[in-house]
Amino acid sequence: MKTTSFVLRQFLFVCAFFLLTLFHFSAASASDAENPANQSVSFSEIWGYLYGSEGESFSAPSSVSDIGYFGAGLDLSGRLTGVPARSSLKGFEGRVHLVVAEVSNRALTHLCMDPALPLRNQLISDLVAAAKYYDGLQIDFELVLPEDDKYFFSFLQELKRGIGTKPLSVAIPARTRKLKRDAYDYQRIAKVADRVIVMAYDEHWSGSTPGPIASMDWGKRVGTWALSCFGPERLVMGLPFYGRAWADVNPAKAYRHPTLQCLMEEKGVQTIERVDGIPRFTYTQDVNVTVYYEDATSTFTRSRMYREAGIPKIAFWKLGQEDPAIWDRLFLE
User: Catalytic site residues?
Assistant: First the structure.
């Protein structure tokens, strides 16, 4: 009888222990589901951008597969300039892509696209030569005129033929639909680029009203359209690491004299100084500043949104701007 009672107690103890353990793991799983900090997501490729001046001191997170190496651009004559040395990026064993950017001169971009002008052939020759020292070449021309759409496409075709088996990637602005005429026509670029980095950021920019760099809803719509055009093999979704600030008052502008008189009266300006005979005054006012930024939680949420949508490749602008905690949650497959 004592033996039976002992066995029963042991059995009940084992059952209780099992139930407590099951409850513990269930509670932990529920906690993980509610807390993004306890979750992770994997991608087949994770790109990060880096300036050449940062290469020697750079330590790459283990989950970064590709680096877009910045610094190269066009001088005022349309020649390639500022190509960083591949050897300056030390200790990184993944793929390194030379990024060539033109983001400031629309007229220069137009002149370099026109096949009737000598600038184009020379630039293509320069780009092909520079790409020899890299694993791939990326074109980030953000000011191509819609009227140059066919020129841009043939420019990319010639570059792809020139670099051969090396991957050609193209960074393009975000779209949520097809435009009537667009130099960055998604379906056309899909025919030539090995990778397309869709820059899904700057939904709100320095000159816009305050708002997220990329709201989740907008980012989802951008990703849906891009995936339908490029498919999961070519598409690399671009995500922001940075933030922006907006002020409700910006006094930096030109003023008419009557406007200045009103301003002086409004601000109670009593003292006017003269510097070399030119009047000057100073006033103080409160400025409200609104800041939108990204942290590890928002970046993870955005990354997971794209992965669950069937997008296995992402890119970040730019390395060094991030909340470092994000690297505990992103992995390569």
Answer: 142
